[in-house]
Design goal:
The complex is a heterodimer. Chain A is an alpha/beta fold. Helices cover about 35% and strands about 25% of the residues of chain A. Chain A has a six-stranded mixed beta sheet, sandwiched between helices. The longest helix of chain A has 14 residues. The two termini of chain A are about 35 Å apart. Chain B has two domains: about 250 residues, MetI-like fold (Orthogonal Bundle); about 220 residues, MetI-like (MetI-like fold, Orthogonal Bundle). Helix content of chain B is about 75%, strand content about 0%. Chain B has 20 helices and no strands. In chain B, helix 14 runs antiparallel to helix 18. The longest helix of chain B is centred in the middle third of the chain and has 45 residues. The two termini of chain B are about 35 Å apart. The chains are: A alpha/beta, B mainly alpha. Chains A and B meet through helix 3 of A and helix 1 and helix 18 of B.
Chain lengths: ~220, ~500
């Protein structure tokens, strides 16, 4: 599905990950761990570029259009499935068919009562559910998500992440919560100082094993 | 819908409905016999400009620049002095009033006293510009950080505190804004030729009216060249040189006949019925009612209709054109083309565009609406397009119409609305002066009153125009604050 052989990844001219060797098979659910700046977002972006048409994308930056409603932001995942004119009509006046589909998804994500509220009037957690909603609504097989539940409370974070993972064949998710990563994913990749320092099955790893990612040298 | 976008939609809906209504009742007929043929002749004139046809082309250029430099300098200084007193309501009202009267109307007023002279040209620019500078500088000072001034020892004298802790914070903005205003003043100065002053506009009008489109085109190219090259020939450090040259070329002298000022103040502007020895109040009210019925109301009505229709068209044109220069759309070549197109319409004054369109289409509202919408639409498109460059879209954002409608438009809409609403007042101001070209807005009646030597009527009509302008300004400000749009004033250049 994804493959890197001695790849060097740069962001704005600065090398972030060096001589990267990585293979991700179809069907894997991978958690990316590491301190901020370790290269998680850069790696996700590089993965996206390998399979741009397969990827349901849930980035951190510029993910949502603040003045549009939750409905429209989720619907945006489906833009490419329809003609531009159809999208335009649905922007001006939400179509019943789309409204029903998005309402159902929003209910599963726990934001159905905010469907007609614009994103700039939501809490951080609600906005994240919306961003995840858009990724799910794009109905693609591979989920690439960057801290998709960081602002959601611990209890809901796990069920939300489980829901998102269950809807995708393959997934790579950047997380900072180690327990969440161990609970939800079947493979853990840890990044530190421009290198992959941990790569293993989550049932072989303990929370303690992951501590080195966050220790200072 | 509890969305921010729906607030923008509602405002757009009301403005759009008002614009549609105006467009519906507006007279948009074409009254010339064969506009196609005339357009052909104008086009061939533009393809074969004749730079040697107009005599005194150099002197026209000299006067255009002289009035502009002198007017902006005087306006800058007096506007700054007014801005120091900005906290007084009186000063704010005074500044609002003098800037609500268009340069051309000031020109027509001073023509009565100082004749066709350099002083008339200078004051016609300096007075409204004082009002504009006062407002902008006043707001700069209001918004500037007060902490440096408060940190000084309380015994420091006010003048030193201002010089050390207030002025430096706004000086750079003032300089930038002043340079931008110089560009506007060159435009205004050229336009003053249409009321007889010896600037480029005078020769342009003559050439176009005589159907001599080759020499008209040459003047227009020259005018475009001057304005587009302004950043190369004008630098703040060269200002003293420019002022000296302007004073030498056009010393601000009046073409003054003895007693003209006192006659103007004590006779000409006194309403006609009050000039009789035994006048009575009812005569004055009859006179005012007559004026209101026959000129003020039709003039204001037409100004409002033309202005609102132009506002709608401006919005539509701006929304269509901004993607041309936006880095979110197209490629390097399409953007270069877009910039070229917008620059031409931004640079040519709406009055000049309207003048050419009137020649083509006749003096209905159509040429006025077209001219205002093209010029203002290009400005709003430029500002909105430039704003889109600062947006960061997610890397999987869609393209084409989807990108426009879902990603870009919602994000820039508040700024677009702010630019448009700020321009509303300017559109109204410009609409009024289109009357000088024969379109029946307020300026038509003002121009007629002046040419019939009925200055008293002209003054009342100008006052009505001021009232309309202040009203529009007030509505626009309330709309902007209701929508929590930031004031786009300082970003106009």
């Amino acid at each position: 599905m994804f493959q890197f052989n001695q790849h060097t990844l740069q962001r704005q001219g600065v090398t972030v990950l060096q001589s990267l060797n990585l293979t991700i098979q179809q069907g894997e659910k991978v958690a990316l761990l590491g301190v901020s700046g370790a290269g998680k977002s850069t790696l996700l972006e590089a993965l996206r570029l390998q399979q741009p048409d397969q990827v349901a994308w849930c980035p951190q930056q510029g993910a949502l259009v603040p003045m549009l409603s939750v409905f429209h932001n989720i619907y945006m995942g489906a833009l490419e499935r329809h003609a531009a004119v159809y999208n335009l009509i649905n922007l001006i006046r939400p179509l019943r068919r789309e409204l029903e589909a998005v309402t159902q998804l929003a209910a599963e994500l726990g934001i159905s009562e905010k469907l007609r509220t614009s994103v700039d009037r939501l809490s951080g957690g609600q906005a994240q559910r919306t961003a995840l909603g858009r990724a799910l609504f794009s109905q693609r097989p591979v989920l690439l998500a960057d801290e998709p539940v960081s602002s959601v409370d611990e209890h809901h974070a796990q069920s939300l992440l489980m829901l998102a993972l269950a809807r995708h064949d393959t997934a790579v998710v950047a997380l900072h919560d180690r327990q969440l990563a161990l609970n939800c994913c079947d493979r853990i990749i840890g990044l530190k100082s421009g290198q992959i320092v941990i790569d293993g099955a989550s049932n072989q790893l303990s929370k303690h094993d992951l501590d080195i990612l966050y220790q200072r040298r | 819908m509890n969305t921010t976008a729906s607030g923008f939609r509602r405002t757009t809906l009301w403005l759009g409905l008002a614009g549609l209504l105006a467009l519906f009742v507006a007279d948009i007929s074409i009254t010339t016999r064969d506009p196609g043929m005339e357009l052909g002749r104008i086009s061939s004139g533009f393809l074969s400009p004749d730079f040697f046809a107009t005599e005194q082309i150099g002197s026209a250029l000299g006067y255009t620049l002289s009035f502009a430099v002198q007017g902006v300098t005087l306006g800058f200084v007096s506007g700054f002095l007014l801005a120091l007193l900005w906290r007084w309501r009186m000063i704010r009202a005074f500044s609002a009033t003098i800037r609500a009267v268009h340069e051309l109307f000031w020109g027509l007023l001073f023509l009565q006293v100082f004749g066709l002279s350099a002083l008339t040209g200078l004051l016609a620019i300096a007075i409204p510009y004082s009002g504009i500078f006062a407002k902008v500088f006043g707001e700069f000072l209001e918004e500037a950080d007060r902490a440096p001034a408060l940190a000084l020892t309380p015994r420091s004298d006010a003048f030193s505190v201002f010089l050390y802790a207030r002025l430096p914070l706004v000086w750079q903005h003032m300089k930038t804004y002043g340079a931008y205003r110089l560009e506007c003043a060159v435009r205004a100065s050229a336009i003053l030729g249409f009321i007889g002053l010896p600037t480029i506009g005078f020769h342009l009008e003559t050439a176009f009216r005589q159907g001599d489109y080759s020499s008209g085109a040459a003047l227009l190219y020259l005018f475009l060249g001057i304005i587009l090259s302004i950043r190369w020939w004008f630098r703040p450090s060269l200002l003293p040189l420019w002022i000296a040259a302007a004073l030498l070329w056009a010393p601000p002298r009046a073409n003054y006949t003895e007693g003209a000022l006192s006659r103007f103040l004590t006779e000409d502007i006194i309403p006609a019925p009050m000039r009789q020895n035994d006048w009575q109040w009812h005569q004055l009210t009859d006179w005012l009612l007559m004026l209101a019925r026959e000129q003020i109301l039709p003039g204001l009505g037409n100004t409002l209709i033309l202005g609102m229709a132009a506002m709608l068209m401006t919005g539509i044109i701006a929304l269509l054109l901004f993607p041309l220069i936006s880095s979110q759309f197209g490629n390097r070549f399409s953007r270069a083309g877009g910039h070229g197109l917008l620059v031409i319409f931004r640079t040519l004054p709406e009055f000049l565009l309207a003048f050419v369109f009137v020649l083509l289409l006749g003096p209905s509202m159509l040429p006025g609406i077209l001219a205002l919408a093209l010029h203002t639409g290009a400005i709003v498109a430029h500002l909105s397009g430039r704003f889109t460059d600062s947006l960061t879209l997610r890397s999987d954002a869609s393209g084409g119409l989807n990108r426009y409608a879902f990603e870009v438009l919602p994000r820039i809409y508040p700024n677009f609305l702010a630019f448009l609403l700020y321009r509303w007042e300017i559109i109204m101001r410009e609409t009024a002066i289109l009357g000088i070209l024969g379109i029946t807005t307020l300026g038509f009646y003002i121009d007629s009153a002046f040419s019939e030597l009925r200055t008293d009527r002209a003054v009342v009509l100008i006052a009505a125009g001021v009232a309309l302008n202040l009203l529009v300004d007030g509505i626009s400000r309330r709309l902007r604050s209701h929508l929590r749009l930031r004031n786009g004033l300082a970003d106009q250049n």
